[in-house]
Amino acid sequence: xxxxxxxxxxxxxxxxxxRLAAGLEVFVMPRPGFHKRYAVLSTRYGSxxxxxxxxxxxxxxEVPDGIAHFLEHQLFEDPEGHVFNGFAALGAxxxxxxxxxxxxxxxxxxxxxxxxxxxxxxxxxxxHFTPEGVKxxxxxxxxxxxxxxxxxxxxxxxxLLEALYHVHPVRIDIAxxxxxxxxxxxxxxxxxxxxxxxxxxxxxxxxxxxxxDAVLAQVEADVGARGYQPRPPVERLYPEEPPGxxxxxxxxxxxxxxxxxxxxFKDSGTPAGGLERLRREVTMSLVLSAALGRSxxxxxxxxxxxxxxxxxxxxxxxxxxxxxxxxxxxxRDPDALHARLTEGLERLREQGLAExxxxxxxxxxxxEFVQLFNSLEFIANGFLYYHFLGGSLFDYLDQLRSVTLDExxxxxxxxxxxxxxxxxxxxxx
Length: 429
Hints:
By secondary structure, this protein is α+β, with helices and mostly antiparallel strands. The protein folds into two domains: 233 residues, CATH 3.30.830.10; 180 residues, 2-Layer Sandwich (Cytochrome Bc1 Complex, Chain A, domain 1), CATH 3.30.830.10. The protein is 43% helix and 20% strand. The protein is built from 15 helices and 15 strands. The protein is globular, with a radius of gyration of 23 Å.
């Protein structure tokens, strides 16, 4: 099976890529001399995928909120014992995570890479859901949900998403609710697994001192022996999100030392995927750095007024079917911060960013991005994240270097629109 090479002239890095007959995409980045090796197997299945039409089916399937996260937990249980023990015996560290748009299973190791990769492929492709196991997991995740509900920063963020979005499932906690996970049973888990854990919906990324041909031969032998048949993509069904925000302001009272504040802007203009979506994400990251980074005038004004500290920050998040900006942190006075912050952002929307400010943060962002390529974890997880959204991690740097001032100011005015804003505050009890 022939490799295709993805090469970044700017980074002087290459990734080889191919697709198996069953549909699994395999990416390998050889890093000769690296002691650690890292692999991540991901499925394009996240918490927002709770309504879908299975390949070949006419009816719509709707499943309980939180089931993608629940399924991730359940795959670590097998008849022979907990998966963690098998990896530990090889000297490997294994983990997993569920986001809004994907679920990933990963390991890192310095030794026994081939055996660890076998274990990864095996436990992800051999589900074992039982009524007893599901009942036990419900109890564990209930405790997890209740714990997060009591965490002020988690509540701050979830309250903001619920305020920004009317009906889009990004407003629902990735873990679901106590009520929703109680509706999960083995049959529903198998339905979701069979729908989203088909190789055609998955990708594997391996990085480190490995032989790409040996990796491919191992993966092809494993996946090829399982009898998968080609399958068309899953049809994901998201509700039509109304314009505007659901609520302008939401407050909670929790045991915190200082108030917490978050200002959110819903982005209704982001492209669903591809380079256009990636470029908007890159542009917004530069806009937020120039507008609110440590060296910005607005941050200094807020800092001098003792309204923010060094942990105050801003981040743009895009998942294809949703996108938003969240700005915030601790503050002594959330109402004063809100007034000064929104006034400053509106001033920026009217006046625009200065050329020298954009170029400064552009240079800094390029340097930070290049440094991140020392992290195997960043490379592997970032590559699959952007791949699932129709882009490439290698494209990020090209886009980052080419953003113009006019483009940055246009996106600034579009995205930081007061008509698309909501506020979340947590006050001390």
